[in-house]
Amino acid sequence: MPVIEARNLELTFQTNDGPVHALKDVNLSIEKGDFVSFIGPSGCGKTTFLRCMAALEHPTGGEITVNGVSPEEARQARAYGYVFQAAGLYPWRTIAGNIKLPLEIMGFSKAEQEKRVKDVLQLVDLEGFGGKYPWQLSGGMQQRASIARALGFDADILLMDEPFGALDEIVRDHLNEQLLALWARTEKTIGFVTHSIPEAVYLSTRIVVMSPRPGRITDVIESPLPKERPLEIRDTPEFIEIAHRVREGLRAGHLDE
User: Fold this and answer.
1) Exposed (0-12), middle (13-18) or buried (19+): which is 188, by Cβ within 10 Å?
2) Which of 53, 62, 86, 184 is the most exposed place for a label (fewest CB within 10 A)?
3) How many domains does the chain have?
4) How many other C-beta atoms can be found within 10 angstroms of the C-beta atom of residue 76?
């Protein structure tokens, strides 16, 4: 059974200016352990698609399942963690306090909370920063703390909406490397929204290329790159070839408008 499956998925928003067709006839299966990136022009529906997986938006047609059940049921079963574009950390809580918040809401014991916070801080290389406040951390460290919060209750699925989009290129490269290492250690299933072609190619086992609104899938690219990926792999002919195919898919989507 696919971890996430969309069949003929459609979503239309009703607005004062008339209907907005965000997604149309989207079909996709994501298997356990996949790292799937979604790329497309602004407004193409890639974030909307991710939010449908998380039960933050509700399709108006077709079907989507997470672990074989509805996204709402999957959320109640704590099937996934969600990382937003902004870190969204509460400034009056320490980093450890921010990570604990969902655990407190879920009713974990204090001892279990402490253990999980320690484990995920280690996982994202923030050991020793649990007592700091968000404003005492760099933007990249705040995003790692946000990822730690999403990992705290050990969901098998991690949904990430452009988590590194606002960071400079050097920090972004470093966090891409760390995310790949984290994925290798945890073997989680990851859905990742990005605007960056190099980021999508570097991170993913599969790259989903989407068209301008209404969002449709124009290409699904299976990456032939090895799981171990140093940053230097971006200079190889294989990497450049995949990036070219993504770029051509984006261009074709615009021409089909």
Assistant:
1) buried
2) 184
3) 2
4) 11
Instruction: Looking at the structure, tell me whether residues 48 and 106 fall in a common domain.
Output: no
**Whole-angstrom Cα distance, residue 116 to residue 55?**
25
| Residue carrying structure tokens 């149309």 | 24
Residues 170-227 pLDDT 10s: 888 988 998 999 899 889 999 999 999 999 999 999 999 999 888 899 999 999 999 8
3 state SS of 66? strand
Q: What is the pTM of this model?
A: 0.91
Please indicate, yes or no, whether residues 202 and 75 belong to a single structural domain of this protein.
yes
- pLDDT for 139-169, tens place per residue? 999 999 999 999 898 889 999 999 888 788 8
Owning domain of residue 128: 86-154
Beta-ladder partners of 219: 209
How far is the C-alpha of 12 from the C-alpha of 126, rounded, in Å? 41
DSSP string, 16-57: TTEEEEEEEEEEEEE-TT-EEEEE-STTSSHHHHHHHHTTSS
Q: What is the C-alpha separation between 66 and 3, in angstroms, rounded?
A: 6
